[in-house]
Specification:
By secondary structure, the chain is α/β, with parallel strands linked by helices. It has a single domain, classed as Rossmann fold. 34% of the residues lie in helices and 20% in strands. It contains eleven helices and 13 strands. Strands 3-4-1-2-6-5-9-10-11-12-13 form an eleven-stranded mixed β-sheet, sandwiched between helices. The protein has a two-stranded antiparallel ribbon with strand order 7-8. A hairpin with a 7-residue loop joins strand 1 and strand 2. Helix 3 packs across helix 11, helix 5 crosses helix 6 and helix 9 packs antiparallel against helix 10. The N and C termini lie far apart (53 Å). One of its GO terms (molecular function) is 1-alkyl-2-acetylglycerophosphocholine esterase activity.
């Protein structure tokens, strides 16, 4: 029995993602982007290099296979270093999960397609936001999900080269040096993400100029540090029309509810439309950086709380963690500690509805069913602050 428990034949959990709900099938390509004007901030002697996934509405997906959520190299890196501390190592087959995006399928070019960028949380790969990126593409958006190299757990480049996160070592060093070094590391991490995003915006502009994409408004969203990056980029770069922040603090602090060390977007606010969606206990009344952003912003804005949610509820963890727990016999506290008590289907449905409605309103000029105007009986889990 002991040999079976530790041997290579032990069963590993396999998961499925929820299918997108929009009218379009989804196509995808992965692109390596190199910013030759910028040295890599984490590794000396290299230009900054990124991987992005582009999701889009497809004209046809026949003969185009569905892509995995993570490559084998990315899955191995994610298994070693992830934000799900209570999960056992080498017991989850992260590379077995298939997305609903079809590799290389031809794009549906009927009409302009608004572009939405996605940035994940610190340490997370771009693929941990697949449910929402596939969803937006199924509703006609072109979605560009960005991996922040050496921040993300693991990034696999063409040819099989895998670059893993440097942040655990950087954080350990900063802790030894003291609080000022920790704040400096947070500031650097945020600045690198914004610079990455602005470079990706340059590439989107090039696609517009070359006619590969029809020119259209651009929005951005992200979870945790990715939500911070979305709003900070909107503050720094006028090319972002609207930004949604899924439970991302906007200050260089160790706890969302700590005062001080505000980012410039929190100090200055923004003029364009913004959406805040927080876990249970995070809203502008008790997150100082959100309160500052709210008070200094002049545009349309909403502050929503998903009752029963935890921080990772705004990632694919919402659907994946309960499946892993069932297959591996993990305690219920592991699930609720990571993704809260809100049922997965309800959490996913609410995120899809509100994020899509936000971009529909501000990138397409379509208020739709006025979901963002006030509380809805369809989503009693969502509280308007």
């Amino acid at each position: 029995m002991a040999a079976d428990a530790t041997g290579p034949t032990r069963r590993r959990a396999r998961m499925k993602l929820p299918a997108p709900t929009g009218p379009y099938a989804v196509g995808t390509v992965s692109l390596r982007l190199v910013d030759r004007r910028r040295a890599d901030p984490w590794v000396a002697g290299r230009s900054r290099e990124l991987m992005v996934d582009v999701r889009y509405p497809a004209r046809s997906v026949a003969a185009h296979p569905r892509v995995p959520q993570m490559t084998r190299g990315e899955a191995a890196g994610f298994d070693r270093v992830n934000n799900f501390g209570d999960l056992p190592k080498d017991r989850v087959d992260w590379s077995a999960t298939r997305t609903f995006a079809h590799l290389g399928a031809p794009i549906d070019r009927r009409g302009p397609r608004p572009v939405v960028l996605y940035s994940p949380g610190v340490g997370d790969p771009r693929t941990l936001g697949t449910t929402l990126t596939d969803e937006l593409a199924s509703h006609g958006y072109v979605v560009v999900a960005v991996d922040h190299t050496y921040d993300a757990s693991a990034v696999e480049f063409p040819g099989g080269r895998v670059e893993t996160t440097r942040l655990p070592q950087e954080f350990e060093r900063a802790l030894k040096e003291g609080p000022e070094a920790v704040v400096a590391l947070m500031e650097k991490t945020s600045a690198v993400r914004v610079a990455d995003t602005r470079f990706v915006l340059d590439e989107v502009d090039r696609a517009f100029a070359e006619g590969r994409l029809e020119r259209a408004p651009v929005g951005m969203f992200g979870q945790s540090a990715g939500g911070f990056a979305a709003l900070q980029t909107m503050h720094d770069d006028g090319r972002i029309t609207a930004a949604a922040n899924l439970d991302g603090v906007l200050a260089y602090v160790s706890d969302d509810h700590d005062e001080g060390n505000l980012s410039s977007v929190a100090r200055d606010g923004v003029d364009g439309p913004l959406l805040l969606m927080g876990m249970d206990g995070d809203d502008r009344t008790n997150v100082p950086s959100w309160r500052a952003l709210w008070e200094h912003s002049d545009g349309w804005r909403r502050d929503l709380v998903l009752r029963g949610a935890q921080h990772a509820t705004y990632t694919d963890a919402t659907s994946l963690i309960p499946q892993i727990a069932r297959q591996l016999g993990l305690p219920e506290e592991t699930v609720t500690g990571l993704v809260g008590t809100v049922p997965a289907a309800r959490a996913i449905g609410a995120q899809r509805a509100y994020v899509t409605a936000f971009f529909d309103r501000w990138l397409r000029g379509d208020a739709g069913g006025h979901l963002l105007d006030g509380p809805s009986a369809r989503f009693p889990e969502v509280r308007f602050v």
